[in-house]
Every structure is written in C-alpha cells, then in structure tokens.
Specification:
The protein has 466 residues and is an alpha+beta fold. The protein is 38% helix and 18% strand. A 7-stranded antiparallel beta sheet has the order 6-7-18-9-14-15-16, with no helix packed on it. The radius of gyration is 50 Å and the shape is elongated.
Length: 466
Amino acid sequence: MEKISAVEDFLTCPVCLETFKEPVSLGCHHSFCSVCLHNYWDQNSTRTCPVCRRKVSKDFLDVNFALKELTLSFTQKEQAPGGERPVVCSSHPEQTPLFCLDERRPLCPVCEFSLHSGHKVVSVDSAVSEVKEQLRSQQQSLSQRREQVSHAHTQCEQIQELAHAQVELCERHIRAEFERLHRFLQQEEESVLRALRQEQSRQAQAIEAQLQQIREELCTMEQNLQTVEDLLQRQSVDFLTQYRHTHKDTQTLLSQHSPQLGPGLLINQAKVLANVAFNAWNKMRALVSYSPVTLDPNTAGSALHLSEDLRGVRRGETEQQVPENPERFCKYADVLGSEGFSSGSHQWDVEVGDHPYWAIGLAKESVDRKGDICVDIENGFWCLGFIDGEYIDVVGKTLSLKRRPQRIRVRLDCDEGEVFFFDAGDMSLICSHKHRFTEKMFPYFNVGKSGDAKTKEIKIFSSEAH
C-alpha cells in the first residue's frame, strides 16, 4: 500500500490535487495539469512555477506523454480490476476506447477523436493485432541480428585465439633468429680473441728472443769487465803478460755492434682491431638474406600453409581453422604480400620449379576477397598462371614458351603503369601488361596442389638487379 500511495503522490497535480490530466513539465522538473498551470498563471498574472516560484521562459509547453501514459496505465489498473475494460476518459467511462497508432496511445472516442484528424485511429483490438504483428517482425529481425552478432562474437574469439598463436609463433621465430645471430657473433668474438692470443704469443716469443740476445751480450760484458778489473789489480810483469790477450778480447768485443731492438716487439693492435665489427657484419651477410616480398598470413586462404619466415607457401591436404577476418581470402587458395606499392619500380623472383598449378603477379588492394572472383584485369588482377601444363596470361591468352622456367621474375613499374614477367634464368620476356594503376598493388599468389611434383612450396627470392 505504501508503494501505491507513493505512486499516487507522484501522479498527483500539486494544484488540483488530482491525478494528472494532460500533464506538462517545467524546466525545474515540476509537473502540473496543463489546465491547472495556465489557470494559476492567469489568476496570479505571472509565469512562475506554483511550487518553487522559478520563472518559466518557454511560451509553449508540450504534453509530457511519458507521464501521461504512466498516469493512464495507473488509472486503468485502479479502475479495471479483474480484467474489466480500462477506462481512458473519466468523463465517458462507458465508451469503448480507440487507439491512435500515430501517437501510440488510447483515446476517448467522444473527447479526443476530433483532435486526431488525419491520424490512423483503430479499435483497441485492431491496434493490438497490428502492434503484435510489428513486434513479431521486430522479433524476427532481432533474432537474425542476434545470430549475426553471435557469429561476429565467435569470429572475434577465433581471431583472438589465432592472435595468441601468432604471438607465440613470432616470438619463437624471433628468438631462434637472434639466437642464431648471437651464436655467430659469439663465434666471431672467440675467433678475434684467438687472433689476439696468437698475436700475444708471437709478441712474447719476439721479445723473449730479443731479451735472450741482450742477456747473453750483457753476460759477456760482465765477464769482460771482471777480467779487466782483475787485470788492473796485477803488477809489473804479470800485468804486462796478461794485458795483451785481454786487450785483444776487449777490442774484439767493442768492435761489435751494440744490441738493437728489432721491429714487431709490441702487439700489432691495428691488425687485431682493424674493422672488427665490419668484418663480422660482412660475414654475417652470408647468414641472412633479404626478401623483397613478405607474405601476409592474415590474407591467406585456409588451404594455404606459409613457411615460418613468410617467404614460401604451399597448398595443404586439409584446410586450417582460421577466422574470416576482413583481409582474408575465403573461397580460394590466395595470399597477398604484406606491403603494397603505389610508386616506383619493384621486382622479385618466384621459384616455381616443377609445381603443376600456380598463378603469380599483382592484385589491387580493393579486390574481392570473400566472393566468387575471376582472376582478370577487370577484377583487379595482373597475373601469369600455369594450369594444366599451359602458361596463361591474365587476359586468358595461352603462351608458347621455349622452355619451362624454374624461376619467374615479376617486375612492377608503378609510374609507367607496366607489369612484366620474365624467365629469371635467361631474362627472356614471357608477357607484359600496361595499365594506369590508381591504387596500391600487392604481390599476389595462388597455389594449387603439388601432386607428385618435387616442388611442393612456391618460394620468393630477391632478384640480383633492381
């Protein structure tokens, strides 16, 4: 009962103290019956709120239909217990109410019908039937929308799961690559340090040989000096007898050259340190190679398997579970390069070997990746294909080649609007196309099943000249 009383207070006009009739709300959020409020203003010659006395600036006040609907609903529940017909108008409770579909509310057929001229007014039963039909249509649309949202939710979860796997794969590859470089640098460091130790050993032997020579000569000098000192201690005939021999030895010793230090007694620091980092880097170049095209796994069809370094692609026996993200080709075994080109000249080699089914070339960024597509210029593709033992260009022309190329060189000149396909073995031209490119062009690859061919994977290499 307390709740009902609170609702009644909320739906009571502060002026007439009765349930709202055509309620209007002021900027101060106080509400009144429209008639009560205007009578109050006329009697007091002022346009202020009867409750808080705040001045009202608006000339026209709109009916608060939300409050009116709430009032009607509460009144109907009070006046129609046990399933009785709800009363819309207190002045004509015996009249069967009508329903205005434009304003979405019931109305009194006596008091309000004339006010709804031009509106779609029907019986309550008809309104219920029509509105229910609309709700059923909305229910069906909501169900379809729910399925779409649910599908998008599943896709997002699949994308997130794949993204986690991509992070782990990238981390493993990065660590393996840098571990390989670390091992190489460590080996190079040890090699340079060995060279330093060898130089240290050479220097030690050289200085030791020099010292040995000096020590021997110093010993000889000490002995000769001692002989001279001893001779100086002698007298008369004994001194003269020994003098001649000692004098001769001394003269011979003094006639010899003084010991001279030879070259190379220090560490050859320049030899050890010359271009240490450059030499290591130069050797490291043999360990790494540059690829002008890196495949984008996010565009690869589910039947394709990319190499870990993203430079090779093969057709798998089974399809992988991959999300249908916007970038991905969904119906065909297609994949694009990760970088598009809109200016300059670019080229790369594709090793096709004896693979029996492939198409390589370029595709516009806007090509359809979800529906049925034909690989031709009209759909944004510039390709060379090998299908059923025949070479076919993008316009469907069968090409006659003198030999079967093992590598195809693709060259794109964005500024001149030209695409060339060469046999990379002898650089003979296979075919070319000229077109005015208006958007980014991406390297394009389509790979079929390899069958019994030795070449299972199509690989990308850097061409020798640019």
